[in-house]
Amino acid sequence: MFAKPPDMFDRDDEWAALSRFAADDRPGATLGVVSGRRRQGKTFLLDALCKADGGFFFEATEAADAESLRRIGAQIGEYSKMALPPRPADWHEVLDALLALGADGPVTVAIDEFPYLAKANPELPSVIQAAFGPRREERLRSRTRLLLCGSAMSFMGGLLSGTAPLRGRAGLEMIVPTLDYRLAAQFWGIDDPRLAVLLYSVVGGTPAYRDGVAGGRGPRSAADLDGWVAENVLSRFSPLFREARYLLAEEPDIRAGAVYHSVLAAVAEGNGTRGGIAGYLERKATDISHHLSVLEDAGLLTRDVDVFRPGRSVYRISEPLIAFYHAIMRPEWSRLERRGQADQVWRDSARRFATGVVGPRFEQICRDWMQAYAPPEINGIPVSSVGSGLVNDPEQKKSHEIDVAAFGNAPGGQRVLLAIGEAKWAETIGTGHLARLRRIRDLLFRAGQPGAGTARLLLFGGTEPSAQIRAAIADGDLQFIGLNDLYD
Ligand SMILES: Nc1ncnc2c1ncn2[C@@H]1O[C@H](COP(=O)(O)OP(=O)(O)OP(=O)(O)O)[C@@H](O)[C@H]1O
Ligand SMILES: [Mg+2]
User: Would you say the CB of residue 206 lies under 6 angstroms from ligand 1?
Assistant: First the structure.
């Protein structure tokens, strides 16, 4: 295994898998695909790998096919110290030159921003398929470890799916994830859990947003947060100011479509269902289906299926910075951009930030905690899935929203409800919240939901609970989870 560079945070599993792939010295060239949303550290990983093992790294650009062919030819020539660099006539020649690099042993060959190449030449995946034919001599004699990398999620995922040419050819398929809320706090060096939630609600877990911003540091304290956000996110001169816009502009399908921005705005305003989004845009739900699936494929929207009503789903904005942009920055864009009123806008947005941005993000953090960090079993059954949903209340003629619902598989195989929870960021958790949860559990029980009778009640709070709640916690079926528990 290669040594992970000391400046690389976390990514141990990714590094181990890439090292294993790169160092595999069995005969025969192999192929891997690395994808993930923008700015998560794909290039950082592959570049470090190529540096560690002396591999070949090519970063494609948005260019005409002939120019890319010339560039990669020249770079192969330089890498293999040829007197005359090859001038490949087509990608078949390039692929054979790349296979030849691995003639004497395993060599990593990384092609970054692969979608640019495939866009300029749609035949490229088939050319690679042919070059990596299972019985092809040139492949069998080579130990090239070819990694194709790119951020156009739908395209990269599509490379290996269904009837795609490369299906069945790849020995490694990696999606580089964004850092979760706990890793993000560590990465930014934040110990105060309250501040960690607030910062995560602005910049999320994208590693690129720390370095190059404010000398690579986050706010020092909760008191420092307001000034930090104004200076590093809302100031028109800060690198993060235009980042959300760049992220959207870099998605080829999305940049030209005003409707996409309005869909994201609708979700940021709290209209997460298909009907709610359509209503916000004053369109029919069927008119926005395409937009929703494009945004979902690009990894910008996440669709959460209602755990109690599988026909209903709620869309959420995956990247916190984009949610922040749509809720706080976009509505005030001209004040921010033309007049530079970062401090004033931030002061005016305090309420919107707490309820529209941090509130929903906190609910997601609670679900993530439940899925990844909570004690793994409830009532002796491992938690297998976590989600949210609506529960019908026929007597009160309304429905109740459940922020956190955990399920597991009973020994007989039946899917059972293990816990339901309420998450409140700013409000103090009190007996009213508890009574509501008890009522919901009762409704679920009466509706025949398996496990509802014994489901645990979870109260997640961003602040300390009321005295009555603290007294009630002694009850076996009730648990309060505070900020310190979430960050442990
Ligand atoms: N694990 C990490 N530890 C420390 N810094 C990181 C890590 N991952 C990424 N970074 C920082 O984030 C920056 C951006 O990462 P990188 O350019 O590799 O992202 P990417 O996924 O290739 O994005 P894009 O799709 O935009 O090309 C890096 O230059 C580095 O400063
Ligand atoms: Mg990159």
Answer: no
pLDDT tens column, 31-65: 999 999 999 999 999 999 999 999 999 999 999 99
Q: What is the set of domains in the chain, with CATH numbers? A: 12-175 (3.40.50.300), 179-348 (1.10.10.10), 364-487 (3.40.1350)
* Residue 68 CB neighbours (<10 A): 22
pTM for the full predicted model = 0.94
Atom of ligand 1 nearest to the CA of 36: 21
Q: Is 210 in the pocket of ligand 1 (CB under 6 A)?
A: no
9 CB under 6 A from ligand 1?
yes
Mutate to test the pocket of ligand 1, among 35, 40, 59, 217 (most ligand atoms within 8 A of CB): 40
pLDDT digits (tens, 9 = 90+) for 415-440: 999 999 999 999 999 999 999 999 99
Rounded CA-CA distance 95/77 in Å is 14
42 pocket-lining for ligand 1 (C-beta < 6 Å)? yes
Helix (H, G, I), strand (E, B), or coil: what is residue 251?
A: coil
Q: Exposed (0-12), middle (13-18) or buried (19+): which is 134, by Cβ within 10 Å?
A: exposed
